[in-house]
Amino acid sequence: MIRVGLPAHLRTLAGVGGEVALDLPADGQEAVTLGQALDALEARYPVLLGTMRDNRTGRRRAFVRFFACKEDLSHEPADFPLPEPVLRGSEPLLVVGAVAGG
Amino acid sequence: MSGVRVLVGTRKGAFVLTSDGKREKWEVDGPHFAGWEIYHLKGSPANPDRLYASQSTGWFGQQIQRSDDAGQTWQAVGHEFNYDGVPGTHQWYDGTPHPWEFARVWHLEPSLRDPDTVYAGVEDAALFRSTDGGQSWHELSGLRNHDTGSKWQPGAGGMCLHTILLDPVNEGRMFAAISAAGAFRSDDAGESWRPVTKGLRSEIMPDPEAEVGHCVHRIAMHPARPDVLFMQKHWDVMRSDNAGETWHEISGDLPTDFGFPISVHAHEPDTVYVVPITSDSLHFPPDGRLRVYRTRSGGNEWEPLTDGLPQQNCYVNVLRDAMDTDSLDECGVYFGTTGGQVYASADAGDTWSAVVRDLPAVLSVEVQTLS
User: Fold this and answer.
1) Any idea what the CATH number is for the domain that residue B163 is in?
2) What's the first-to-final CA gap in chain B, in angstroms?
3) Theoretical Cys-Cys bridge with B87: which of B83, B91, B125, B290, CB 3.0 to 4.6 Å?
């Protein structure tokens, strides 16, 4: 099970109260990539399509970040393998909205 | 019993204001979509319970929301706005070619007859249509692909298609306005378009009378007389008596002819409202006095309407989509400000009062008259 933490606006949009649990990795699957996790998240909550990545190009939206295990994965490619603690469910994959003030 | 529902889009959510026909006491419902920018929301003329809302943020992009129960509940519908084919380029601020890039939906215009059909005006300027209640969107690319498209440039607010007018009499005729490309007309339900800018003059352009490049802020039409159009341009208030073929200026005795919104009285096609703003560099009312101006003669002769509006220390703006009228026997007029006030007049503008004073900056105001 992969746990995913969403920013408040995306939780509201998806209608979820807390973290989302994804049925990954599948049986026999040893690695899960960042792109696969986001694909699974969007498949479960289609309303999130386009909110984290551009619909057509797949590029991360400028003000969205992906963190895990105290590392910034935002600039990693879609086929970047998620860290082992994320696969075990002991650490979440965090989708983060950039801070803004004023 | 008659009443009104005022749909207010703001920088931080949507609000629904309701009142009976007297328009004295108001219920305020919201914020819906708290924290999101609601550029526009509007109800279907064919089914007033059907509402569409444009919801966006710079963080998470565009959503479209639909309500089938007058805003009590909402569902997210389709939000993929893909340009038809491989989009070419328009001009960037520095004059270089720049590819069309979708940014947001500025305006939603439901069909006059079919609640499931709705048009969307977007930035970068293009027109989309949905015929399935907003689930899917398809570009009417004849507009963007007009011969002049590569010459279009954005205004400071982005290259937005912000005005869509559907002609209730002439089947298939519609108008669109783009900042800063100009005004366009289609006579075949949006398949093909041509600029309708003859008579416009914009000193901010190298050729002040060029076919495209005019920064049209808003166009208004009275449904009983759809060939007569009123336009608030960047500078100048204009009128056309032939569906945009030619325009002439009707700024007359306005204190300034810069502004954003323009609206027409529900029952008097020659009664028109504007909100003069000091200038393009000073986006607030002249002298710190918030005044709506009304003409009852189709232009040129304007009277200030001030009763109930702040007449000192007022430095708000009124944006292009933030004024509308109801169609009760005594026409109501409504507008919202960037200071978060929504003002209403139940007597065609003679007197005003604030329905709410402290909303986030108001981006749009649409009024539904309920029977």
Assistant:
1) 2.130.10.10
2) 6
3) B83
Question: Is B58 touching A (CB cutoff 8 A)?
Answer: yes
Name the residue type at position B246. Answer: T
Chain B residues whose beta carbon lies within 8 Å of the beta carbon of residue A7: 59
Domain count within chain B: 1
Show Cβ contacts of residue A39 under 8 Å, excluding neighbours closer than 6 positions: none
User: Looking at the predicted structure, is the pLDDT value of residue A100 above 80?
Assistant: no
Our separate counts of H helices and E strands in chain B read: 0, 30
CA of B222 vs chain A CAs: smallest distance (Å): 38
**What does the pLDDT read at residue B1?**
65
Class of domain A2-97: alpha beta
> Do B319 and B288 touch, CB atoms closer than 8 A?
no
Any chain A CB within 8 A of the CB of B85?
A: no
Structural domain range at position B46: 3-370
pLDDT score of B106:
98
Question: Domain boundaries in chain A?
Answer: 2-97
CA-to-CA separations, B86 to B51, B62, B80, B201, in angstroms, rounded = 32, 21, 16, 33
Quick: pLDDT tens for B247-270: 999 999 999 999 999 999 999 999
- Chosen for mutation from A45, A55, A56, A57 (greatest number of chain B CBs closer than 10 Å) is A55
Q: Say if the Cβ atoms of B80 and A49 lie within 8 Å.
A: yes
Q: How many interchain CB pairs under 8 A, A with B?
A: 36
